Structure formats: structure tokens, C-alpha cells
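Support request, priority: normal
Reporter: lab tech (M.K.)
Component: structure prediction queue

Hi team, I submitted a job for arginine--tRNA ligase from Streptomyces murinus yesterday, and the status page still shows it as pending. I've pasted the exact input below so you can check whether something in the sequence is tripping the parser. The sequence length should be 373 residues. Please let me know if I need to resubmit or if it's stuck on your end.
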Amino acid sequence: MTPVELSRTVLHAVRCAVDEGQLSVAVPERVVVSEPGAGGCGEYATNVALQLARAAGKPPRTVAEILRPRLIAADGIEDVVVTGPGFLNFRLGQEVDPLQDLVREIRAQGQRYGHGDALAGQVLALRVPYEVRAEVVADAVVRIVATQGGRATVEHQGGRATVEHQGGRATVQHHGGRAAAEHGELVDLRPVPAPEDPAPLGPDAARWALLHPAPHDRPRITADHLVQREGNPLFRVRYAHARVRSLGRGAARLGFAAEPGPLNSAEADTAGTPAFQAHAPQAPAVHAPALHTPLSDYPRILTAAATHRAPDRLARHLVTVADAVLPFLTCVLPIGEEKPSAAHRARLALAEAAGTVLAGGLSLLGIDAPEHL
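Reply from support: The job had stalled in the queue. We restarted it manually and it finished. Here are the results:
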């Protein structure tokens, strides 16, 4: 069970409790689940009972105890423990591997992974000045809002513009000076302007330089964004994607493809003679939390970026994904005379899932995700 699936399960439990009259609250649009904090237990936890307590007129622990039986009965959940003032802690079934489920989910959804309906039916009128950073931020916001079911138009002083997507690029069309409020909720986008023209950096580095900083921070228009080294966050993100694609090509040459499963040879159904296995290089054990959390957090980050009109949140999370994945990529392909195994297929599937997230996020920022770098 993935965090997204667990969140939906918790929402369903809240909805059932409301329908049966045990809780009198408005069912929230979404529930956040995360790793347990201090004093918690299990794989995941949520504070939904604390969030609903005031509206329900009940102590948080009482709300948690109302939800607990419904959650224990759900498929994939082995136990639910209430800790602290009312945190719900989940222990998933032993046969369930959250990371494998997550990889399968990303593979099934492709670059639509993380898309949802948090802003379904909402129309935003983004009012921006005629300034390069504001234009680029507005373009990215239009893309990101669309992933959550919303729609955005761009308003300028003296007129209106709509942003349409063709061939992966956005085109701004200017219209007459009709009132902005007629076209949706009015939102002022006025990030700190760029100190100089970013065009000399090229389209990708220029967009990154304008989108990566928070809107209240002054962007740096410097050649640092072009340096092909680890100190450059844009390089790390694009390099991680290119490395994943390179590993896929290498695996094809070795005759194997990605398939979700256990990441470690001891757990997987490996092939080879006992003599070979005794002398084969042992890949380091891969611990799920280091890779699971950045990938499973992507839908939440995407929703937050859309809700707060903050593409910088997406840009910074892509750096987090890249930094978590890059050390792992060294153990994807067989080493030396080692033969491809089920573990290698599983590692490749995880790497490709990370590549899908990186490519999808870069695309929303309007930045190319290279196959080679």
C-alpha cells in the first residue's frame, strides 16, 4: 500500500464514520500520511484525528478510536495504534512492500503520477507584471495547476492572456482589457524581478534560475547554472535523469528489463550456480526509506505547488529526488562477471520510476529532461 492509497483509505474511514453518524464533520479533501514521529510506530502515521477533533466536538483520541476499527479492517493494514494526543500509526501487512507498490504505481501512471483533482473546477486569474521572471513563473503555475484539475489564465496590466500548451511548450495569447475578476479567482504573482536578462543562460538554465528560488528571493543570473558539476542543482537533476536512461540502455544490451520486486539478491529469485554466487560481488543492501520517501512525497509536493502557486517547491523537490537516487544508481547494473538477476530488474524498475518523476517534474517547469548528458 502506497502513501497515496493509505491516504485514500483514511479518507474512506472518515467518510464512513460521518455517514454512520459517529462523526459530524466535513470530510477533508485529502489526508497527509508520513513517517511516524517521535513516540510513533509502524511505517506511517497521520494526525487526521487532531485535525477533525474541534469540528467533531470530541477529544482527538476519541476521534482516533472511532476511526481505528475501520482502518484495521482495510486490506493491507495489519494494525493501527493510537499514540500521543491522537496520532494514528499504521503497520502494514508483512507481505506488502510499500516501495514495490509505489514503483508499480509510478510505472502504471507514467508522467501523470502525482496528478489529482485538488483544484478541480477552480479557475485562477494570475495577474503578473510585464517582467521575465513573473512571466516564467506564471507559465509554470499554469502547467502545475492543470495537474490538479484546475485552470489558470494570465492577466497583464491593460489586458488578459491565456496560456495554451502545444508540443510541450506554452504559448501566451493576449486579449482585450476585460475585468480580471470575470475570469476566475484573482491571484497576484509578483516574484522579486530578475536583476538582469537571463537569456544568455539558454532556455533551460534561465528557467531554472528564475523558478528554483522562492518568489521572495532574488534570483541569481550567473554562469553557475551552466556548470556541469555536483554543486549545480540543475545539473544533478538532469544528470540523474540522463543516468537512469543510460542504465536502461545498458540493461537492454545485457538482455534484461525492469520489473518491480525485492531490491536485494538475498530476497530475490537469483540465477546462477552456487560457485558463482559464492564469488559474485555483493551489491550493497538498499534501504527503502531513503528512496521511498522522496518518490512517495511527489504527489503531495505537486499539490502544494499548485495550491500555493509555488513552482519553486517542485524545483527543490526534484533536487531531493535526484540526490536520493544518484547514490543508488551505482548498484543497478551487474558488476564484473555478475549475471543479471531479479534484484537487478527490481533496481532498474526503481531507477526508472525515479527517472519518470524527474522527467515529469522538469516538463512541468518547462525544462528539457535529456536522454544524454
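The domain at 3-92 is CATH 3.30.1360.70 (Gyrase A; domain 2). The two ends are 35 Å apart (CA to CA). Let us know if anything else looks off. Ticket resolved.
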